[in-house]
Write a structure and sequence with these properties.
- There is one protein chain.
- With about 300 residues, the chain is α+β, with helices and mostly antiparallel strands.
- Helix content is about 35%, strand content about 20%.
- The chain has eleven helices and 13 strands.
- It has helices spanning about 20-35, 50-55, 75-80, 90-100, 100-110, 125-130, 155-170, 210, 225-245, 280-285, 290-300, and strands spanning about 10-15, 40-45, 60-65, 115-120, 135-140, 150-155, 175, 180-190, 190-195, 195-200, 220, 250-255, 260-270.
- The strands form three sheets. Strands 8, 9, 10, 11, 12 and 13 form a six-stranded antiparallel sheet that branches.
- The longest helix has 17 residues, at about 20-35.
- The model has no long low-confidence stretch (mean pLDDT about 90).
Length: about 300
């Protein structure tokens, strides 16, 4: 029996550094719901039109907002106050996952391997960083997505550049241990882990350029991991998802080091949803097409 979804609103755009990516993802989801012949509207959200959500009175909302305002619990709390069901994790869980320090604290408390880190500021002495970490190490903002502001630094000069660039976009920056290894990602929909994808970027790591602009990035699915390792990675990802109280859908990014140990890098509570994004790619390998995936994610709003 076909579900009665009522009027669906796709929320996209927003005011973060990932706005343009969100607009592309949002259009893909909107067009998919149109193709499924559902009652759907879209809203390019900004700080001035947030009141339109209540005025348009949707029955449920598909959130395709990335970054600040959309993935950090702000819009989720607003929708909770309005009593409108929405896709993805709740406001508290979203807030935790958007903040890499908070995420790491919870993972470490539960004995889950994640790179060590320290918080830095403009006044932090580089020598103090060098006393804590060997080059290369990672400099990145605490609460950005799409690898915005992420630098793998090899020496003091590149460290200074990375810190300066990060301070332009955030006053909350961390230095993180660099884990040499292979990058993987695990999409999760309704508490089911999708096939693991191996990422082979052309550069040092899967950065913004590799994600959105490079034609050289390789996506390997099936991942090439042996079956036991693949299942262990899925189990670990689902465990992290549960520990952080995530719900609905998301994506776990990790690195498997040269000793075959997995390290959790971060959890994404609103992953990309273009035809070429990682969650749709993994779903496709389970013979779930894009339109089916969108509906599976939307179905989680009934729970």
């Amino acid at each position: 029996m076909k579900r009665d979804y009522g009027k669906i609103m796709v929320l996209m755009g927003g005011w973060s550094n990932e706005r343009e990516i969100s607009l592309i993802s949002g259009e893909s989801v909107f067009n998919s719901l149109v193709a499924s012949k559902l009652d759907v509207i879209k809203l390019d959200l900004n700080k001035d039109n947030i009141g339109k959500i209540k005025g348009l009175n949707p029955d449920r909302i598909f959130i395709v907002l990335h970054g600040k305002g959309g993935e950090d619990g702000e819009i989720q709390l607003h929708l909770e106050n309005l009593g409108i069901p929405y896709t993805g994790s709740g406001s508290e869980s979203s807030k935790v996952c958007m903040n890499k320090k908070t995420t790491k604290k919870i993972l470490l408390e539960n004995n889950i391997r994640t790179p060590s880190y320290i918080k830095i500021s403009k006044s932090t002495n580089i020598k103090d960083i060098e006393n804590s970490f060997h080059y290369p190490f990672v400099v990145k903002p605490t609460s950005e997505g799409s690898s915005i502001g992420v630098y793998v630094v090899e020496d003091r000069m590149s460290c200074k550049v990375a810190i300066n660039e990060n301070m332009k976009i955030s006053n909350d920056v961390i230095v993180e241990e660099y884990i040499a290894g292979k990058e993987y990602t695990v999409g999760i929909v309704n508490n089911n882990a999708l096939p693991v994808i191996k990422l082979i970027p052309p550069g040092k790591f899967y950065d913004f350029e590799a994600k959105y602009n490079s034609k050289e990035t390789q996506y390997i699915c099936p991942s090439g991991l042996d079956q036991n390792t693949e299942e262990e990675i899925k189990k670990l990802s689902l465990n992290c998802f549960s520990l952080l109280n995530c719900r609905g859908w998301g994506r776990v990014d990790l690195i498997i080091d040269e000793q075959n140990k997995p390290w959790i890098i971060e959890l994404n509570t609103v992953p990309g949803m273009t035809e070429h994004s990682l969650v749709p790619m993994a779903a496709n390998h389970r013979n779930i097409n894009f339109n089916e995936l969108v509906l599976k994610i939307l179905d989680t709003t009934f729970e």
